[in-house]
Amino acid sequence: MYDLDQRSITQDVENQIIYPELIYYVTNQDGVEEKIIEPLALKYYYEEQVRNLLQSNGFKIVEEMGYYDRHPISEGPELIFICKKE
């Protein structure tokens, strides 16, 4: 759980889905500020799942990175795969 503006991000661990909310503050022409909350459902994948999905769909993994500065995949917060269609 993560508290943002006293709201929580819920998570469905079994199905690997998180439910964050985007919160916008919009000021209309009259100067009145309105808070808009947009719910999301985001699926997340683990490294091995991404690797298997890519390979089983005909992609060859050319390079793997953990961040855009080319950190090793084991050391970064991201999963970045450079692939080539076989």
Outline of this structure?
The chain has 86 residues and is mainly beta.
Structural account:
The chain is mainly beta and 86 residues long. The chain folds into two domains: 3-42; 45-85, no CATH class. It has one helix and nine strands; from the N terminus they run E-E-E-E-E-E-E-H-E-E. It has one helix at 47-56; strands at residues 3-4, 7-8, 10-12, 17-19, 21-27, 33-39, 42-43, 59-65, 80-85. A three-stranded antiparallel β-sheet has the order 3-4-7, with no helix packed on it. It has a two-stranded antiparallel ribbon with strand order 1-2. The longest helix is centred in the middle third of the chain and has 10 residues, at 47-56. The chain is elongated. The model has no long low-confidence stretch (mean pLDDT 91).
Helix content: 10-25%
Main sheet strand line-up: 3-4-7
Largest sheet, strands/sense/barrel: 3 strands, antiparallel
Uncertain residue ranges: none
Number of helices: 1
Q: Taking Cα atoms only, what radius of gyration do you get, to the nearest Å?
A: 19 Å
Give the beta-strand count.
9
Helix vs. strand class: mainly beta
Q: Report strand %.
A: over 45%
Number of domain modules:
2
Mean pLDDT: 91
| String of helices and strands | EEEEEEEHEE
Q: Rough shape?
A: elongated
Which key phrases capture this entry?
1 helix; 2 domains; mainly beta; 86 residues; elongated
Layout of secondary structure:
Elements: E1 3-4, E2 7-8, E3 10-12, E4 17-19, E5 21-27, E6 33-39, E7 42-43, H1 47-56, E8 59-65, E9 80-85
Antiparallel strand pairs: 1-2, 3-4, 4-7, 5-6, 8-9
